[in-house]
Write a structure and sequence with these properties.
Elements (H helix, E strand, L loop, with lengths): L1 H6 L13 H24 L9 H13 L12 H24 L4 H37 L8 H25 L5 E3 L2 E4 L2 E4 L7 H17 L4 H33 L1 H33 L20 H28 L6 E3 L9 E3 L3 H7 L3 E8 L5 E9 L5 H5 L4 H7 L3 E2 L4 E7 L2 E12 L2 E10 L16 H9 L7 E9 L4 H13 L2 E3 L1
Antiparallel strand pairs: 1-2, 2-3, 4-13, 5-6, 6-7, 7-12, 8-10, 9-10, 10-11, 11-12
């Protein structure tokens, strides 16, 4: 009995469909192109590291369903319409590929590419076997979408909400057991100091992983839809509940044994919680399987040995579109880069001789999130007694720095730490030792004091004084990068912070003077 449960339902072993090798090559290239566009997120963003497993799981589910393919229903009257819609979808691929070269971190493009590939594949299946085949193979196609990163604004809304809920619930627990605790945004203040609730502690990674596993197990055991929804709901609740326990454990250790205990237990606790979630979810699916044996596909429809081919012209069009998209993209950016005036990178010379100089270590969790190639932090005091803190990071070409910097700017991270932004940020272009730096100035209130933050995101291009957003993350800014043929050539980020100044103009002059001693031309 146990062996049969582990193996899942046995498909009906009848004569398999003959493979259309031209179609196999065309769709292999199509899906490989999609995976190639998503691999950056899967490789450098821990939140979507599970994405590497999704293509293999989706292919396995497709193969299992192929073994029990139903009799094809012939498409009458709608074949031309379907082929026309597919051809239109194919024409989108070159445009998306062209824009993605300049904006590899633009997640809406990832969704556009993924939905286009799914639509083309679904249309091909419909042409080959009709509505029966489309229903039969729909789930493996749609399952791949769980590996596509969420839109940034939606993701941040969920993460920030989970952070605050996690912090609020743990503060209540700590106070209930006699440990005084106070919530400040996403930070918990206890007797030994402050404990921050970061993305890793929200449960977002566990929720996404359990959601993917729940979908896979539901199809693997061929559950009815009610049981699949129950499995998904149980997985989400399990992930959030387990991460509440994890966060409580870390905060309790921090309150009792200091911040070093949190550092030692942070990663082991996360791995343990995720492992527990997956095993409990698997156990629940086995329990549901025992109660729902009627869901097995023992009465799957018989196969037909008739071969149904997708129109050869459509397959050739798909492969031609992929080749054209790559060739046209490289030609467009290569032409513009040959005419583009290159701006040399600049570097920083840390003020190690300044009074009270010290290195500010970057937490391992921040290093894991930012994935920069080089950089660090430092703090010092100027001659007037004002304290300064600075961070500088560099990403080499192809590392999609905007993906990380956009999610961890001052207006995102500092309010999460309990600070209040006083006014809207202002943009400036500072000339520092012959280097044009696009500076965005923020003013925050921190425990009644003013905190001035000067933030620079430099992407290798000369700053545009007329641009409202030097970071080019608006739709207009992103498309302007495509028009100018500018792709990622390496990114640098500098952030310098000082408290105590009441007037913004005075703080700006002081920050400019500090950067004059730090920034050097390459």
């Amino acid at each position: 009995m146990t062996a049969s449960l582990l193996a899942g339902p046995k498909p009906t072993m009848l004569a398999p469909q003959r493979l259309n090798w031209l179609g196999l090559v065309a769709f292999a290239l199509l899906w490989l192109e999609l995976a190639s566009r998503l691999r950056f997120e899967w490789s450098i963003n821990p939140q979507y590291g599970y994405g590497w497993t999704v293509p293999f799981l989706a292919a396995y589910l497709f193969w299992r369903r192929w073994q029990s393919t139903p009799v094809a229903s012939f498409v009458r009257g709608r074949g031309f319409v379907t082929a026309t819609v597919m051809a239109t979808a194919v024409s989108i691929i070159p445009a998306v590929r062209l824009v993605q070269e300049a904006d590899p971190d633009w997640r809406l493009l990832s969704w556009a590419m993924a939905l286009t590939v799914v639509l083309i594949s679904a249309g091909s299946i419909y042409l080959a076997g009709g509505l029966r085949w489309l229903r039969h193979f729909a789930f493996p196609l749609l399952f791949f979408l769980v590996a596509v990163p969420w839109p940034t604004q939606f993701e941040q809304l969920i993460i920030q909400g989970l952070m605050r809920a996690d912090a609020a619930i743990n503060v209540e627990f700590l106070n209930a057991i006699g440990i005084p605790a106070l919530q400040l945004g996403n930070v918990i203040e206890v007797g030994s100091g402050f404990v921050g609730i970061d993305e890793a502690c929200t449960g977002i990674r566990s929720i996404q992983a359990t959601f993917m596993v729940s979908l896979f197990l539901g199809d693997f055991y061929n559950f009815l839809w009610a049981r699949r929804i129950l499995l998904i709901f149980a997985g989400v609740c399990l992930a959030f509940g387990c991460n509440l326990i994890r966060t409580f454990l870390l905060v309790w250790l921090g309150a009792e044994h200091g911040s070093e205990a949190i550092k030692n237990w942070h990663d082991p606790a996360g791995i343990s919680i995720l492992t527990v979630c997956l095993f409990v979810l698997w156990g629940l699916s086995l329990l549901l399987r025992r109660q729902d044996d009627a869901a097995s596909p023992d009465n799957a429809p018989a196969l037909t040995t008739t071969e149904h081919r997708i129109p050869r012209g459509l397959l050739i069009t798909i492969m031609a579109a992929l080749v054209f998209a790559e060739g046209a993209t490289q030609l467009w950016y290569g032409m513009h880069e040959g005419r583009m005036v290159r701006v040399k990178p600049w570097y920083v010379s840390w003020p190690r001789a300044a009074p009270n100089w010290k290195v500010v270590p970057v937490p391992e969790s921040a290093q894991e999130l930012l994935r920069y190639n080089e950089g660090g932090g430092g703090a010092w005091t100027d001659e007037a007694g004002h304290r300064w803190t600075m961070y500088f990071f560099r990403w080499l070409p192809g590392r999609t720095a905007g993906l990380f910097v956009r999610n961890h700017r001052p207006d995102v991270c500092l309010p999460a730490g309990g600070m209040t932004q006083r006014r809207a940020a202002t943009d400036r272009i500072w000339n520092v030792n012959g280097v044009a730096l696009p500076i965005r100035a923020y003013v925050f209130e921190n425990a009644g004091d003013s905190l001035h933050v000067f933030y620079c995101y430099w992407d290798g291009a000369a700053p545009n004084p007329a641009a409202e957003n030097q970071e080019n993350w608006t739709v207009r800014g992103r498309l302007d990068l495509v028009r100018r043929g500018k792709r990622d050539v390496g990114t640098q980020m500098l952030e310098i912070v000082t408290p105590g100044y009441e007037e913004s103009e005075v703080a700006e002059r002081a920050a400019h003077a500090q950067l004059e001693r730090i920034v050097r031309r390459g």
